[in-house]
Amino acid sequence: MNLKDKIREYKKELILKKAGEFLEKNGFEKSKMADIAAHCGISVGALYNFFSSKDELFYEYVKYQIDTFVKNLKKGFERIESPRERLEFFVKLKFETFKSKVNLLKDTVAGDPLFFAKLNANKGNPALKIYEILAKEFEKMENLKTDDYIKLACLFHSFTFGYIEYWLNYDQHLDKFAQEACDFFIKGIVK
Question: What are residue 190's DSSP bridge partners?
């Protein structure tokens, strides 16, 4: 990657951070590109130079958030050895991340329970990195009912979304459910 490309990627990352702040406060559906551009301190044309549409901006925002999540997950894993404890750390980090974006999650587009499934089907799978990390942890565990570790990773990821949906709909304290989520899931997959 040449210097010009690196500068463009850096600018794009800065825009995604600022645009994310705006979307997290105001939601996706009601946000207009002009308002997002103003919040970022750039012209609408400059914003369109990086993202051809609001949908593309949102997809890139989600991808950026997933990349940030993966970095934080790997950093946290450096100090944890046990696969079980790593899975619990994953859940805690996931819950913290979603809690910080509650206004965006209540948006009709981003809050769609099938949003990530649709995103994965239509835009590649930005969460694939997460599944691969989780699969490696399941592979280290003993006495599992299956050795399809990617399947377990996908199921675990989806299972924990159930807790997020419960939290959003019933205003429960999400923090207290990380250990429970791991316990329930692992009990179901161990022989």
Answer: 144
If residue 110 lies in a helix (H) or strand (E), which one and from where to where? none
Domains of the chain and any CATH numbers: 58-189 (1.10.357)
Please report, as a single letter, which amino acid is at residue 19.
A
C-alpha of 171 from chain center:
20
Give CA–CA dist 191/189, Å, rounded: 7
> What secondary structure letter does DSSP report for 13?
H
Q: What is the DSSP letter of 175?
A: G
Report the distance separating Cα 64 and Cα 66, nearest Å. 5
Q: How confident is the model at residue 148, as a pLDDT? A: 97
Q: What is the pLDDT of residues 1-15, one digit of tens each?
A: 789 889 999 999 999
Angle 56-59-60 (CA atoms, 0-180°, nearest 5)?
A: 85
* 34 burial level (CB within 10 Å; 0-12, 13-18, 19+): exposed
The model's pTM is: 0.86
